[in-house]
Fold:
Amino acid sequence: MRRLWDILAGVGVLVVLAGSIPATRAATHTYNITKILADHPEFSTFNHYLSATRLAGEINRRRTITVLAIDNSAMAPLLAKHLTLESLRNVLRLHILADYYGAKKLHQLTGGSAVASSMFQATGDAPGTSGYVNITDHRAGKVTFIAQDAGDGAAPASFVKSVKEMPYDLSVIQINDVLTSPEAEAPVPPPAPVNLTDLMSKKGCKAFADLLRADPDVEKTFDATVDGGLTVFCPGDAAVKAFMAKFKNLTTDGKASLLLYHGVPVYYSIQMLKSNNGAVNTLATDGTSKNFNYTVQNDGEVVTLKTKIVTATIKSTIIDQDPVAVFVVDKVLEPRELFKIAADVSAPAPAPVPVAKKHKAAKGTASPPAPAGPEEAPADEKASDNAAGRNGGRWVVAAVATVATVAAVGIY
Ligand SMILES: *[C@@H]1O[C@H](CO)[C@@H](O)[C@H](O)[C@H]1NC(C)=O
Ligand SMILES: *[C@@H]1O[C@H](CO)[C@@H](O)[C@H](O)[C@H]1NC(C)=O
Ligand SMILES: *[C@@H]1O[C@H](CO)[C@@H](O)[C@H](O)[C@H]1NC(C)=O
Ligand SMILES: *[C@@H]1O[C@H](CO)[C@@H](O)[C@H](O)[C@H]1NC(C)=O
Ligand SMILES: *[C@@H]1O[C@H](CO)[C@@H](O)[C@H](O)[C@H]1NC(C)=O
Structure:
């Protein structure tokens, strides 16, 4: 029963999550490139590979972009090259321009030409000028595109038609040929499989990695989330050491929830974290109550995580490589679901609250000053419902992971 409810709750989270990190710049549209292209069967191959290379999610997350779509027959010669998926990903990235070009703008280019940067340019995989696309508006009204380092003898591709325009968020236009370059096609080493706990152990989070290893269910939840996108905030060794007495006081479920609380089932690069503020849900979040969340807040280059109990600061990066990022933080993140909000800042550290029993946490006590926000809620949650049950937690995770792209809508 509980399990079924959790599945339903997990599904419910899809809708709710959509606005979980409010963009600094209000996004006027949300869109799903897969769905847009599905209305045009002539782009089914291109569409398939946008999903297979995980670029569809990146497109959905971005604003002010142009997608240069290729029909099935023009895709065939590219596929005949049998590039690895990672190289194909780079070639397709040349077709995603970081600016809005509708049909009208293309036919009115200042000076008759423009240089657009593509998502390939933005990856850092692209050396020199590769990753830029030359656009030329010829006198007869013909518009052509070519990768700036296309190589000798490469012919430009031509504008065919506008497929979808959502000014000034997304423009999808058809071009008659694939854009490519030797750099884009160059072999890319497949991403090394990430062993989270090993990586953390080697880079300053050994104590936290040991806690994960000690709970195989929790460790598995982290590992299983990587492919769909995962951001981990791991407390450094000193922070874990200082916290151990409190940790030992937690129930088994409380310990699991606390560990899961340090994982967010969406990949956030440090750049995304630096440019957006807002609440994020975690691996411990239960779909119904959206509990076990915290606020990401940046101040210039400094990114903090505010849980109502503690404010932790990101100190360093262990890995930041789509789809996974691990950042070291200077404090253990204490969820309000497990710890009492201190009555005043000078009071001694709050004692953990046993999670097995229902309780009224901190009701009537003064909260530390905190900005009012939609996440501001009375602290009288039912703790027993808040400890993410292992099964429950996992179901929610699976559902959240599949909509990671939805969750990140508007992050740019
Ligand atoms: C986008 O649309 C496709 C096809 O309709 C669907 O399968 C997919 O789940 C959608 N993606 C998101 C993130 O909603
Ligand atoms: C792209 O444009 C630049 C100048 O804007 C030019 O130097 C370069 O040769 C062009 N590349 C191609 C392949 O046309
Ligand atoms: C990570 O490496 C350790 C050994 O160092 C191994 O026990 C564990 O199973 C690995 N985890 C994954 C997910 O491969
Ligand atoms: C552990 O729990 C006990 C009983 O609730 C409490 O007295 C003690 O202060 C707690 N220890 C820590 C480190 O929070
Ligand atoms: C954060 O969690 C609290 C419960 O602790 C919940 O009331 C609130 O709605 C959540 N906020 C968001 C933005 O999900």
